[in-house]
Amino acid sequence: MGRQSEPIINHFSHQHPLHLTNPQPSRVCSACKQTLETEPLYTCRSPSCTTFSLHLKCSHLPHRITHPCHHNHPLSLLPKSHNPNGVFACNACGNTGDGFSYNCKDCGVSIHVVCATLPLCLSHQSHGHQLGLVFASPYATGGFRCDVCGVIEGGKCWLYRCGSCGFDAHLSCATSKDSYCRFTFIPYGDPDQFSVIQ
Predict the structure, then answer these.
(1) 3-state secondary structure of 27
(2) Is the pTM of this model over 0.90?
(3) Which of 40, 79, 92, 148 is the 20 to 30 Å CA partner of 33?
(4) Separation between Cα atoms, residue 160 and residue 120, nearest integer Å
């Protein structure tokens, strides 16, 4: 917070200068892959590159972090996956992605930048207790049934869980605006969430 927004930046992820512009609903952030409807953004104005854009907050993502999901090694910010097709499978949500990721090359861990900044606990209208972010299913099968949508998740995805009641929720169900999640967004680099490595 309080960070000055420069009108033009050079970002490690892109070969051309990026210019600060007003929100543009038709643009998608190259880092988080979310639309740029309400926030200022940096865009590339090079005629050969018309689609590269970054949210202001995504332009400030730390290059290396330690995250509670992976204590073995730091995670490095990659603008593109090491995979030949540029796509990675997120170890948090299980979905594929082609945006920026936090990655441990030694262990093969890749996490969407959005997943890496999820709150460690939140409240949800469908359950009376706080739900904590859990990095592995507590069940022997490795899966769980989401108590918000009822769908069984068979993968090794993160989930939000109430340990005392056994209430489980998909990341997307627990954080969706449509499912009445109540949490305060934790900005990138919050020391209570993960540590930035200089």
Answers:
(1) strand
(2) no
(3) 148
(4) 9
Return phi, psi of residue 172, to 5°.
-65, -40
Residue 25 near residue 35 (C-beta atoms within 8 A): yes
Per the CB < 8 A criterion, the answer to whether 27 and 36 are in contact is yes
Q: Count the neighbouring beta carbons within 10 Å of the beta carbon of residue 86.
A: 12
Which residue reads 């952030």 in tokens? Answer: 29
Token pair, residue 80, equals 């593109």
CA distance 196 to 5: 20
Looking only at the bridges linking them, the beta strands covering 96-97 and 121-124 are unpaired
Residue 26: the pLDDT is 82
Q: Which residue has the tokens 């299913």?
A: 137
- Residue numbers of the chain with a pLDDT score lower than 50: 1-2, 179-198
The residues, ordered by sequence, that sit 6+ positions from 168 with a Cβ below 8 Å of its Cβ are 144, 145, 146, 147, 159, 160, 161
